[in-house]
Amino acid sequence: MLADKKLKAFVPTIKPEEAKSFYQDILGLKLLSQDSYALEFEVNRALLRVTTVQELKPQPFTVLGWNVGDIASAIKLLNDKSVFCEKYDFLDQDDLGIWTSPNGSKVAWFKDPDGNVLSLTEE
Predict the structure, then answer these.
(1) What are the residues whose beta carbons fall under 8 Å from the beta carbon of 71, sequence distance 6 or more?
(2) Of 21, 49, 85, 106, which is least packed with CB atoms within 10 Å of its CB?
(3) pTM of the predicted structure, to 2 decimals
(4) Which residue ranges form the domains of the chain, and what is each CATH number?
């Protein structure tokens, strides 16, 4: 029923101006619209709505992620923009914050200005 429809993902923010700068200028997403309710971005033919909320308790798990061809290069580009990956005591991660999963996928996590956990995965 929805397999052929455009996906719209939602992420909350209490800092819409910082979120706008992060998603547009740092991550390079195309801003489609902005109003007092949300920012909407285009992400590879899908939509991301960064919704302004009154209060936010960021969750400890990934809320949004991207598959990338070269995770180390993507992380270095983020590092150049002062965005660094999270390091978790319970995972064996390299210096860039990359964890290799049991199936061989490489995964790293970073946060947006609101503390939402985002991820990169290299299959």
Answers:
(1) 98, 106, 107, 108, 120, 121, 122
(2) 21
(3) 0.95
(4) 7-56 (3.10.180.10), 58-123 (3.10.180.10)
